[in-house]
Amino acid sequence: METKRKEYPAEWYDKIYHQDKINKTRYFLPPEKSAYCSIWNKAIQWIQDVPEPSLFDLGCGTGQFMDLASRSGIQVVGGMDFSAEGVRISQERMPGHAHLISCQDLNIRPYEWLRPAKIMTLFEVLEHIRDDLGVLSALPASQQVIFSVPNFKCENHVRIFPVKEELVERYGERLIITDVIQFRKVHIIWLVRGVTR
Fold first, then answer.
1. More confident residue, 20 or 43
2. Are 54 and 74 in contact (CB under 8 A)?
3. Which of these, 65, 76, 13, lies nearest to 34 by C-alpha position?
């Protein structure tokens, strides 16, 4: 379901990430203390089902998921976010991977910066972008993808998915969806696994 919200610019996220870094809250926490940890752990199980898994995280924010995945033995080949502050924090969090994390915009295509990986992840990204279908279409064919989207409104959500069927209908043309899991009873997050067509 579309909301009447607009896409927020990178500078809006820069301010949030900078404030969280100062206060050591939410996006600056170790991934194990994040409200998203159970979702990320399930995604890591899915990724570990793939032989010799490799990961590129699109919309990596402050790098919490990449950090958790790397420490779980998954090869992180890259990450990107359009927030320069998020990228800086990601690089500080993962200094050994800093050269693999870049500031990019998913609305600018083609993705010449995208490195091949067995899995592409987009956690809490697609609900912030008007052209979410264009993002998925820009990924390579037969690309394994794991993403999450919410069912609840927030000031920066341009779209939400009150029921699972809505996300299957929206993304089914671009993806062969193999799994959808609901997390939480209130403020639901849908975790989705699929392959690009």
1. 43
2. yes
3. 65
| 139 in any annotated domain | yes
Q: Which of 184, 182, 188 is nearest to 152 (CA)?
A: 188
Task: Indicate yes or no: pTM above 0.85.
Answer: yes
Q: Name residue, tokens 């939400």.
A: 160
**Residue with the two structure tokens 């203390």:** 33
> Which pLDDT tens digit goes with each residue over 16-39?
999 988 888 899 999 999 999 999
Helix (H) or strand (E) holding 90: helix 84-93
In a domain, 157, yes or no: yes
Q: Please, which residues have CB within 8 angstroms of residue 93's CB and are 6 or more apart in sequence?
A: 62, 63, 64, 67
Q: Which domain holds residue 192?
A: 10-196
- 134, part of any domain: yes
pLDDT in tens, 146-173: 999 999 999 999 999 999 999 999 999 9
CATH of the domain at 73: 3.40.50.150
